[in-house]
Structure formats: C-alpha cells, structure tokens
Amino acid sequence: MKKLLCLLLALMLVFACLAGCSGDTDEGDANNDSNSPSSDGDTIKVGLLAPLTGDVAEYGIAVANGVRMYTEELNANGGINGKTIELVEYDEEGDEARAVTGYNYLMDEGVVAIIGDVTTGPTVAVVAESQADGIPMITASATAMNVTYDEETDTLYENMFRSCFIDPFQGEKMASFAVEIVGAETAAVLYNNGSDYSMGCAESFVEMAGELGLEIVANESYANEAVDFQGQLTNIAAENPDVLFVPDYYNTIALVAQQAASAGVNATMLGVDGWDTVLNVVTDPALIEGAYYCAGYSTQNTSEAVQNFLSAYQEKYDSVPNMFAAQGYDAAMIMYDAIAKAD
Q1: Residue 98: helix, strand or coil by DSSP?
Q2: Separation between Cα atoms, residue 265 and residue 242, nearest integer Å
C-alpha cells in the first residue's frame, strides 16, 4: 500500500502544481485541531511537521496555513473516499533534533503519511528513517538535492517528494537573470558554508555564471548562525560587482542588507526562495529596494487556480499568501490525491 502511495505521489507531482510555472501543548509541542474528529474507522491521520515557532517560523506557519486550508476544503467536500482527514501537527522549531522527535511522535500517533518538513536540515534529518519505515512524505519547500538523494551513499529516497523546485534550478536561474535581465557583467557571491541549501544554490550560480561569461569577482562565505558580515562585505565592496548573490533565509538577508549598505556595496542584490517574507523583518525596506529573488509562485499569476487560492486564503487568514503557503497548499493537494487513489 505504501509503495503504491509513493508511486501515485510521483504521478501527482506532474499534475497538481498550483503555482503555474516555500499553539503548542506540553505533549511534545504537538498541535491537534480541537475541531478534528477522533481517530476511528472514518478518519485518516496525516502528519504535519513544521517550524511553527523559532527563527524560520515565517516559513512554517505559511506552509501549515496552506496545508490546513486545503485539508478543511477537502473535508468539507467529503474527505477522501468518505473519510475525514485528521491533521496531526508537530512544531519542530526549525531544529533537526526536534524534527526527529516530531517524526517519532507522528509515527506513534499512527499517521499514514507526513507533509513536511519545511527547511532542508530538519527534512534531511528524518528522511532516511521515513524511508526505512515506508512512510510517504512530501515537502513544500526543502529545495536541497540531498532531500531526495544521498550522494555519499548513492541512496534514492523513493518515499520523499516535493512541491517545489530544487537548489540547482534556483542558482542557475538567478545567474541567467543577472545576465539577461539585470545586464550584469560581474558578480559577487556571499553564502553560508554551514548550510547545504545555501551552498547548493551558490555552487549552481557560480557554475552557470561561468557558462554565461558572468565574471565572479568575489566568492565569500560565513559560518552558520553568523551575524557579522562586515569583513566579507568590505572585500566585496572593493571589487564593485554589478550584482551580489546571497542565497540564505530571510532573517540573515535582513542583516546582510543592512551591513552591505554600511560597507558601501552598491551591487544589485539577488536571492533565492529563502528571501520570501524578508520585508517582514528588514529594518528599512529601502535597504532591499531593487533586489530580486527566485520564487515558485506569484500573486500576479492570473490563472483561475491561483486567484481562487488568493481569495480563499485572504478571507480565511486576513493576509496575502506567500510562496510557502501556496506550496503548502499544493503539497496537501498532491498527498491527499495520492492517498485517495491508493484507497
């Protein structure tokens, strides 16, 4: 049954992409909707593993909102083959060890599949165990290559899927964008050397830049959780690049943008999907005026699917959905459709 569900998940990924091309309890910080029905023969339990608090909660809350909304819509329309979806949530706070704890909690709760995790590190922390257990998973936003394939052991995770693009795609597209749209001839790269996500995007950007004739005049890195980038940015400013590519999460980008201005960096800043929601945390929006980042969804998409999603989300949450909310909605759609077909 689980192998069939994994096969159907693979097929559903071809058809179900919306974007048209991202309360605690003492019981393990699990969040169970008080309105959810109890688990019985008329209920299907599905896990949701996400950072609902912590440094990357902006991502996790958005993904969770998208998943919850599609779950409620599906249940209102009869559920899956007459059964109601019971969403069992766990807040892993953006921490890899807590993600493992959360995975085990969801397994103890008897879920048949898991939507999550949200960022790369926590997702990679649980994927091998989920493969061993035969539990299908889908991530809305973990873009690193090793989420689905471990190059060191040559292991393909046949139970792991995603409703987002991958890091090499982002790096390549932003290098092409720098040349073809921005008109850049020189570029600098500033990346997190403790993050597979950041390194993967940076590597593909540099590789594509070489193919396009975009000269990399500075390639600087920083440690994971760093907050001081002045040394690297001073080096970059001395090279006066046309663009500065910084592949990292929104909270780091807010710090880099502020320090880049004081270091005298005049380059156009470029980023990846982790930039989404940076405007919520940056001290002055002018610091990232004119910057660009890669995303898998846009509110400007005029398709009926996107516009219907926009309206429903705004009505439910009184806010404009970002990329993570849209891809969370997609992830739930894909997973539930596979469950329905696997019966």
Answers
A1: helix
A2: 10
Structure tokens given for 23: 């309360």
Helix, strand, or coil (residue 5): helix
Two tokens, residue 91: 């807040």
154 and 176 Cβ atoms separated by less than 8 Å: no
pLDDT recorded at residue 17: 42
Strands 155-156 and 149-150: antiparallel
Q: How far apart are CA 256 and CA 233, in angstroms?
A: 8
SS3 35: coil
Compute the 3-state secondary structure of the chain and give helix, strand, coil in percent, each to the nearest 5: 50, 15, 35
Task: Provide long-range contacts, Cβ within 8 A and 24+ apart, for 250-253.
Answer: 250/58, 250/274, 250/275, 250/276, 250/277, 250/278, 250/280, 250/281, 251/55, 251/56, 251/281, 252/192, 252/226, 253/278, 253/282, 253/288
Stated pTM of the model: 0.79
How far apart (Å, rounded) are the C-alpha atoms in residues 66 and 116? 12
d(CA 138, CA 63): 12
Nearest Cα neighbor of 38 from 91, 92, 109 is 109
208, two tokens: 């594509």
User: Nearest 5°: phi and psi at 4?
Assistant: -65, -40
DSSP state of 273: G
CA distance 75 to 339: 14
pLDDT in tens, 136-155: 999 999 998 899 999 899 99
- Return the minimum-mean-pLDDT range out of 60-69, 181-190, 290-299: 290-299
Three-class DSSP category at 338: helix
* DSSP state for residue 327 in the 8-state scheme: H
